[in-house]
Amino acid sequence: MKLRNPPVNALSLELLTELVISLEKLENDKTFRGVILTSGACPAGGCIIALSCDCRVLADNPKYRIGLNETLLGIIAPFWLKDTYVNTIGHRASEQALQLGSLFPPAEALQVGLVDQVVPEDQVQSTARSEMARWLAVPDHARQLTKNMMRKATADRLLRQRDADTQNFVSFVCRDSIQKSLQAYMEKLRQRKG
Amino acid sequence: MKLRNPPVNALSLELLTELVISLEKLENDKTFRGVILTSGACPAGGCIIALSCDCRVLADNPKYRIGLNETLLGIIAPFWLKDTYVNTIGHRASEQALQLGSLFPPAEALQVGLVDQVVPEDQVQSTARSEMARWLAVPDHARQLTKNMMRKATADRLLRQRDADTQNFVSFVCRDSIQKSLQAYMEKLRQRKG
Amino acid sequence: MKLRNPPVNALSLELLTELVISLEKLENDKTFRGVILTSGACPAGGCIIALSCDCRVLADNPKYRIGLNETLLGIIAPFWLKDTYVNTIGHRASEQALQLGSLFPPAEALQVGLVDQVVPEDQVQSTARSEMARWLAVPDHARQLTKNMMRKATADRLLRQRDADTQNFVSFVCRDSIQKSLQAYMEKLRQRKG
């Protein structure tokens, strides 16, 4: 399964809907066994998807960045994303990266533990495939129960507080000050490109 | 106290009984102060004992491996062992190592933080002794209360759920599919040696 | 704001009172935005203040040490300090450092993650200032809410158990055996200097 929305693969509503439908199909496919890889530039939404994978491979392209830059937009990463960040790179690195809205270039992403491998761009696919083979070589049932044991607490907390979190986010993001902050960030991005 | 059951020091019922008796004797010996070291090849059970020590010294022998390879046998590390793994090497490293059933060679075990020192095989004993001296130089009472503060939450959780966990494990491991999976693994080990 | 109490900047009652008053003034100053830096030798109390900062810069002076050496004095770091240590350097490093009462020289402090930067002594001020500028460039509101999200659980636990913890500490530290242990440590320090 590949996500394509050139030129920047933005997570439009269409792309997200397509992703959800594809994931639901995969869940119903009993031969599917849950290992997903990712590569490319992943700020915010892209990073969320990457964090939910078993393993992350990033192309060694100096233009790529991965991380959660919510604060730079004047907004706040939700608690369940923070939990997943802490699970992946630890408490102190998360505290610093979330406050500063850090987007890590490949070498730094590898060092902080946000990705597992950094390889030349033309080897991303093959590395992903051989990595996937390594995970799928483990007896399925045991691997899946183990994954569940590792991620259940975080996922349960998200499910338990999902409605409150959604309402919070909607009311927060609709405030005038936040809308202005988002607009200012978009403007900055536009100027950088122009 | 040394554990010896040549050639592989397998944790037979006899050896475990001997270990428990020795530990109970040590607990009653008021001069004993709780620092244990370990070395050698430690998959699964050996790794559990190592994780419960204050400090781990591993011989730099390319044949040695340490880690929790339960998934490769088709079984699942219990929650209390997972908790201890996370306390020792962190959440992300545990997630990956537990799912893949990784057994780490000495250099990798050191890098991931599963052992504290890797030394030439003939220096394991002396390193262990000088390391032990370093721990025992700290005022006992303060050191033990501090250790308790660090490990109590994990130990309490184990005690609270011990019976349920034991029943779970017994019923899980008695299933036909799991017995077949264990047999297949044993067969693979036998072929590798043969 | 600078803390000065030459020659060793000991946290006397006077200095602590001055610090608390200054922090209260800063809290009432709406332009203040919560980033504090630190440098210099920081055993125990100095390390506590450093841990509560957003970022830590240490001078590369071989005489400087940072860490929590409570066990060496025969006393125990309180749970809220342990929590903050674990948040900063992880569980295993905290377990070892708290039990051994480790005071880290600059290079080791950097490696374990207890400080974020080690720079020549004459660059501490300028590094601190440029680091502070980096944090304050992030939209305030979002950064502060994010910081709150990261530290609230630990702070709440401290507040909830503050009275019990204070009583515990006072009764513990007034014991004859602990007073003797503290005296012995002071004596050792005096001899080293004499």
From TrEMBL, chains A, B, C:
GO cellular component, one term: mitochondrion
Pfam families documented for this protein: ECH_1
Cited InterPro entries: ClpP/crotonase-like_dom_sf, Enoyl-CoA_hydra/iso
Record's keyword terms, sorted: Isomerase
Gene Ontology molecular functions: delta(3)-delta(2)-enoyl-CoA isomerase activity
Gene Ontology terms describing biological process: fatty acid beta-oxidation
Family matches, as PANTHER family: ENOYL-COA DELTA ISOMERASE 1, MITOCHONDRIAL, ENOYL-COA HYDRATASE-RELATED
Protein name: Enoyl-CoA delta isomerase 1, mitochondrial
UniProt organism field: Bison bison bison (North American plains bison)
Designated gene of the protein: ECI1
